[in-house]
Specification:
This protein is α+β, with helices and mostly antiparallel strands. It has six helices and five strands, in the order ααααββββαβα. The protein has a three-stranded mixed beta sheet with strand order 4-3-5, with no helix packed on it. It has a two-stranded antiparallel ribbon with strand order 1-2. The mean pLDDT is 89. Bound molecules: zinc ion (3 copies).
């Protein structure tokens, strides 16, 4: 189970690797990874933290990119639809995917203090849901697991 985001790591390498995978996947799937879509992904990759659409717009504006809300929303739509980013429902915010290039049903650990988010891929929860759904004759289309709490840093800070 990966919870990379909360651990110290070479984040520049992390960004470079993510961009590389997204560029490659886009090419393979013949998706148009336009400069605006790339910029929005770069904004999401800056930190492992969930960003609201409004914050993303502000950053686009600061970069001098034409930042009409529909442009940002379309870019976010593209990233989420293709699995390059995820929407965190509980925060109404977005996060870059850290398990790129693999089919996954992510689970998110969300810090309620600093909005840091770690994405992980639990092994058993999906199986459990599949069994439950099967018993109920239910067809699962999408699973979202979001846990809210405190990240290691905020736990240390709150102890003082
Ligand atoms: Zn990183
Ligand atoms: Zn993901
Ligand atoms: Zn935190």
């Amino acid at each position: 189970m990966e919870t990379l985001s909360f651990e110290k790591h070479d984040h520049r390498a992390c960004i470079a690797k993510s961009l590389e995978i997204v560029v490659r996947c886009s090419k393979e799937a013949e998706l148009q990874f336009t400069p605006t879509r790339k910029k929005v992904l770069e904004i999401l990759l800056e930190e492992h933290r969930a960003l609201g659409a409004y914050e993303i717009l502000e950053k686009l504006r600061a970069d001098g990119i034409s930042s009409q809300p529909p442009v940002a929303y379309r870019a976010l739509d593209f990233l989420v639809k293709n699995g390059f980013a995820h929407k965190i429902e509980g925060l109404n915010a977005f996060i870059a995917c850290t398990i790129l290039g693999k089919a996954h049903s992510p689970a998110f650990l969300i810090c309620r203090m600093c909005a840091a988010v770690a994405e992980s891929q639990p092994e058993n929860s999906r199986e459990y849901l599949d069994d439950t759904a099967q018993n109920a004759g239910f067809l699962i289309e999408n699973t979202v697991i979001e846990a809210q709490g405190l990240c290691p840093k905020c736990q240390r800070d709150s102890v003082g």
